[in-house]
Amino acid sequence: xxxxxxxxxxxxxxxxxxxxxxxxxxxxxxxxxxxxxxxxxxxxxxxxxxxxxxxxxxxxxxxxxxxxxxxxxxxxxxxxxxxxxxxxxxxxxxxxxxxxxxxxxxxxxxxxxxxxxxxxxxxxxxxxxxxxxxxxxxxxxxxxxxxxxxxxxxxxxxxxxxxxxxxxxxxxxxxxxxxxxxxxxxxxxxxxxxxxxxxxxxxxxxxxxxxxxxxxxxxxxxxxxxxxxxxxxxxxxxxxxxxxxxxxxxxxxxxxxxxxxxxxxxxxxxxxxxxxxxxxxxxxxxxxxxxxxxxxxxxxxxxxxxxxxxx
Length: 311
Ligand SMILES: NC(=O)c1ccc[n+]([C@@H]2O[C@H](COP(=O)([O-])OP(=O)(O)OC[C@H]3O[C@@H](n4cnc5c(N)ncnc54)[C@H](O)[C@@H]3O)[C@@H](O)[C@H]2O)c1
Hints:
This is Nucleoside-diphosphate-sugar epimerase. By secondary structure, the chain is α/β, with parallel strands linked by helices. It has helices spanning about 15-25, 55-65, 75-80, 85-105, 135-155, 180-195, 210-225, 245-255, 265-270, 280-285, 295-310, and strands at about 5, 30-35, 45, 65-70, 110, 115, 160, 165, 165-170, 195-200, 205-210, 235, 240-245, 260. The strands form four sheets. The chain has a six-stranded parallel sheet with strand order 3-2-1-4-5-7, with helices on both faces. The radius of gyration is 19 Å and the shape is globular. The termini are far apart. Bound molecules: nicotinamide-adenine-dinucleotide (NAD).
């Protein structure tokens, strides 16, 4: 591995994965890219719209890229507001990356999937082979992405791999456009104003993971021996699972008074369609997935970091 391209590098995950890759691999060039220009991102950085195959091709050729971490996407809530664009970015964008991967003989493409592949027909704690019948455009695009990845693996021997990520809790880049954003927004608002109105019910329980564990999972999976992997982009990982009110209680324990209100909007039905826990035993046995953050540690880290940033 000589050169890694990260697409969607300015987003919630990319803004932490890119420096983590740079820290981990001294002798590998990490090229960050996004559709936006990136003033604060360390070099090299390129503006790349993944829906335009010629732009993907140009950056791969310019830097002699051999590995791609493909993060460019529209998330669940944003995708429901703009299904057309979600289809274009999540499907055409991935197709472009896979096609360039095939054409240029890339060594590896890492593509996150999501718990959004599951739908109301799936029971709790699903394993990788559970029914995938999502009801959102985002979930549909992720099922198609998983199937496309498997097709390219089987047909062209392209090494595509990924994880079905749950909601990610982090303090560096504030998420936007996702259904699990409340699990980050609550911290910002609690610390800034002492109050927050959740857009889900207080009993909404979803699987989540702290960013440090998510980054570790993405990198560990990317380094795993291909012969150990039973799945391509379908590995479940689950760090923890908590309700909105459990989160509020833990935040209040740390910061004192926290006035949490719950006014569900359209995102509630998306949350209700997802499982609240995941069976991640395959990731644990195949490539050693083992999260370090429980809810108390996650809340401690978020409060400590955001008290410095927000106040
Ligand atoms: N954050 C989560 O909780 C979560 C959960 C499950 C799965 N995922 C998956 O992880 C990946 C990264 O998610 P994220 O949370 O960092 O998302 P994000 O929305 O924070 O970042 C996505 C980035 O993609 C960029 N982008 C959008 N359209 C583009 C285009 N046409 N060309 C190039 N870049 C474009 C955006 O500018 C943004 O910086 C996605 O595939 C997402 O589905 C994220």
